[in-house]
Amino acid sequence: MTLSDPAGAPATPRLSDIAAQAQVSEATVSRVMNGKAGVAAGTRQRVLAALDVLGYERPVRLRRRSAGLVGLVIPELTNPIFPAFAQIIEQSLAGHGYTPVLCTQMPGGATEDELVEQLEERGVTGIVFLSGLHADTRADPSRYARLAARGVPYVLINGYNEHIDAPFVSPDDGAAARMAVRHLAELGHERIGLAVGPARYVPSRRKAEGFAAALLDSFGLSRGQAERRVRHTLFSVEGGHAAAAALLDDQGCTGIVCGSDLMALGVVRAARQRGLAVPADLSVVGFDDSQLIAFTDPPLTTVRQPVQAMATAAVGALIEEIHERAAGRREPPRRTEFVFQPELVVRGSTGAARK
Q1: HEC profile for the chain?
Q2: Whole-model pTM?
Q3: How far apart are the C-alpha atoms of 15 and 33, rounded to whole Å?
Q4: What is the spatial distance between Cα 15 and Cα 29, in angstroms, rounded to a whole number?
Q5: β-strands 343-345, 99-104: how paired?
Q6: CA-based end-to-end distance of the chain
Q7: Distance, CA of 115 to CA of 334 (rounded, Å)
Q8: By CB distance 3.0 to 4.6 Å, which of 165, 210, 270, 343 could disulfide with 174?
Q9: What tens digit of pLDDT does each residue of 228-280 get?
């Protein structure tokens, strides 16, 4: 929206307002607005962002040419963690001068391969894949080798694959499961279950491995005993509801660790349908900590994905790949995984086990 005076003409930006929003001096704002040198790139970006937030149009001289298009391929937008990633990735790309192109998959819509084909037709400079086919151990990884052979740099988030030579960015899923189990064990829970997504996905496998290791450390349970406490369903409210039914009825769990916040909400719903109170009768731990999770009933204890750090690192890795390609590098990119530590956020959905 453009700010206007009563006659409908665009309003002249006030230096004081922009300076306050950007947290810089009016002199700095003036230098940016007049296109003068001597302003750090990050500071310049803050001033431009302040213009956007306040609803002012950028002066024509400040509208820089895009360094190129970068595709962002994500599974869907119903899980709030994906829009959270998308927003930060797009902001980071814009800060580097690139124009992001968001491509969303949905049931019955374009596949990942079709979206990639469309992006290539538009001459994208690079692609960011978030929780894509690279995370599916049953999918053919050769599609990424073919993409690299066509000279398109890319980076992959959430789902390491040893058959793909590219930069990967991941949370430590195993550590996430371990810290959730430790938290519940410290509250006196012994019958702890795991509700997680399909076993063919790398994040699900890593969480299940971390869960088994934590049950061994805390209670001396064997891997076979731990596996009986795991239910693989879908990363959704419905998936969490289905997993909870099995864990409550078959295993008598008093604490459930979930592979996503949406699954955790499904577990809470299943518990209430059985007349159980959360956390008095059942403690629930989610994973992701998307923006509105603190406002659920009860507020959800969860393991926070470091979205800001992961998204920024992914863009940085992609920009490095783009620059190396531009410099004439011919060999394929090295397979590297950047692993980020999650954080347990304790809220109201976990409590002491009943004696």
Answers
A1: CCCECCCCCECCCCHHHHHHHHCCCHHHHHHHHCCCCCCCHHHHHHHHHHHHHHCCCCCHHHCCCCCCEEEEEECCCCCCHHHHHHHHHHHHHHHCCCEEEEEECCCCCCCHHHHHHHHHHCCCCEEEEECCHHHECCCCCHHHHHHHHCCCCEEEECCCCCCCCCEEEEECHHHHHHHHHHHHHHCCCCCEEEEECCCCEHHHHHHHHHHHHHHHHHHCCCHHHHHCCEEECCCCHHHHHHHHHHHHHHHCCCEEEECCHHHHHHHHHHHHHCCCCCCCCCEEEEEECCCCHHHCCCCCEEEECCHHHHHHHHHHHHHHHHHHHHCCCCCCCCCEEEEECCEEECCCCCCCCCC
A2: 0.84
A3: 9
A4: 6
A5: unpaired
A6: 58
A7: 25
A8: 210
A9: 999 999 999 999 999 999 999 989 999 999 999 999 999 999 999 999 999 99
How many CA atoms are closer than 13 Å to the CA of 272, on its beta-carbon side? 11
Closest alpha carbon to 191 in 65, 106, 282, 80: 282
CA atoms within 13 Å, Cβ hemisphere of 248: 22
Region 56-72 average pLDDT? 77
How many C-beta neighbours within 10 Å does residue 285 have?
31
